[in-house]
């Protein structure tokens, strides 16, 4: 079900984006 490296990169990028959005909101 997809390349593990791609899945790991997607999770990492989503986590970074959520942290960035939280910083921008506050």
What does this structure look like?
This protein has 26 residues and is mainly α. The chain has one domain. The protein is built from 1 helix and no strands. The model has no long low-confidence stretch (mean pLDDT 92).
Topology:
Blueprint (H helix, E strand, L loop, with lengths): L3 H22 L1
Task: Sum up the structure in keywords.
26 residues, mainly alpha, rod-shaped, ribosomal protein
Give a summary of the structure in a few sentences:
This is Truncated ribosomal protein L16. It comes from Callitris pyramidalis. The chain has 26 residues and is mainly α.
Protein structure class: mainly alpha
Number of structural units classed as domains = 1
The run of helices and strands is H
Residue stretches low in confidence (pLDDT < 50, at least 5 long) are none
Question: Percent helix among the residues?
Answer: over 70%
Q: What is the CA–CA distance across the termini? A: 37 Å
Question: Please, what is the average pLDDT?
Answer: 92
Sheet having the most strands:
none
Shape: rod-shaped
Q: Measured on Cα atoms, how large is the radius of gyration?
A: 11 Å
């Amino acid at each position: 079900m997809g390349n593990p490296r791609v899945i790991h990169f997607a999770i990492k990028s989503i986590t970074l984006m959520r942290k960035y959005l939280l910083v921008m909101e506050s």
